[in-house]
Amino acid sequence: MYVAVKGGEKAVKNSQRLVAQKRRGDTRLQKISMDQITNQLGLGVDRIMAEGSLYDITAAAMAIHQAQGDMMEAVFLVRAFRTTLKRFGNSIPVQTTKMTAIRRVSGIFKDIPGGQILGPTYDYTHRLIAPDPDQGPDAGSDRHMETDTAPPNHAAACEDISPLPEELPRVIDLLQAQGLLQQDDIRPPGDAAEDLTRQPLAFPVSRSLRLQALARGDEGFILGTAYSLQRGFGLDRHPFLGELKVGYVAVRYTPPELGFDIHVGRMKLTECVMVNRQDDAARKAAGFETGYGLVFGQNERKAMSMSLLDRSLAAEKNTGKTDYPARDPEFILSHCDNVESSGFVQHLKLPHYVDFQSELVFIRNRRKDHTPDKGNR
CB–CB of 138/154 below 8 Å? Predict the structure, then answer.
């Protein structure tokens, strides 16, 4: 034990009390509720669920509150909670073609089966801080309306919108039907599902584990490395957004005692497919290659970045080139986890008195050995 640390238990407990006080804030203000967090900070909740590898809205909201909005700390809390949960088995793979979509766009075809669905997105909002962001874009115009003017009938405005089909075909199926799409590596049905949370990451890594690592990786790191691809550090050509889709999918599970699948709930997902041109080569004919991303909640930046890195890391397997960070699986997958990264960086706050004393002794001895001899000048 470090001598200087003796008696530190009281200081640690006092620090924890201070954290509780800072988390509560001004007691004259109303305490924030979990419902407020889940409903008004929904995108933050979605990010915590994605990086925490647990689809639990309540747990994510509680973690955000406990961590005072520190997303990385909240992810740590959710992952710790996840380890206490009992595992029943593997669900049946979700069918994203049957997703109840709230948002769906494509950058490669204007007219797609089922149509383009803008949905809720910040893509078309003004990046200006609004006094009341809950008001819509037309809120200001209502102030000049006559008092006897009827309020706008939003229900009537939506009557002309045709209902969405029960199944939305994949946009890339249009390329597949023309034989222009390269086949991806697909795990044969019946194979045991790999689980990154129950086995260490070892290289070379399968595509399944690669996507799992990217899905729970830090959004900032994934986004930054994907951006490096677009700036020319590993991506030869401009990528295209094949399809970006946000919506709800059914989760089904087959209990061993029943022998048939049952519906256990729904969850919100973001799915993205990126398309890149592949010129003809000795191993493949000219066509298009795809990168894939699937994330909990509405995490569009994360899903798009994932799909870019998925294709980039697959290219390393085919070409053997790792000349850029975003093409090196070991660099990306070993450093994208924010919990591990945070732990290694923050451990520097722990006492290192003895280690540093040895460094001081080393430096003093080195300086003593290299002291110039004044008599020889």
Answer: no
Phi, psi of 195 (to 5 degrees): -140, 110
- What letter represents residue 205's amino acid? V
CA 353 – CA 358 distance, rounded (Å): 9
Q: What is the tens place of the pLDDT at every residue in 165-201?
A: 778 889 988 888 888 887 665 555 556 678 898 888 8
- How far, in Å, CA of 259 to CA of 265, rounded? 18
Helix (H/G/I), strand (E/B), else coil: 35:
helix
220 CA to centre of own chain: 9
- Cβ contact 48:73 at 8 Å: no
| Burial group, residue 248, by CB count within 10 angstroms (0-12, 13-18, 19+) | middle
Looking at the DSSP assignment, which residues form a beta bridge with residue 262? 253
pLDDT tens by residue, 33-60 = 999 999 999 999 999 999 999 999 999 9
What pTM value is reported for the model? Answer: 0.84
CB pairs under 8 A, 24+ apart, for 6-13? Answer: none
Q: State the alpha helices, DSSP H only, in the chain.
A: 8-24, 34-40, 42-52, 57-66, 71-82, 154-157, 173-177, 207-215, 219-230, 300-319, 329-335, 338-346, 353-369
Partners of residue 246 on adjacent β-strands: 103, 270
- Per-residue pLDDT tens for 276-324? 888 766 566 788 889 999 999 999 999 999 999 999 998 766 556 678 9
Distance of CA 123 to the CA centre of its chain: 18
**CB–CB of 79/52 below 8 Å?**
yes
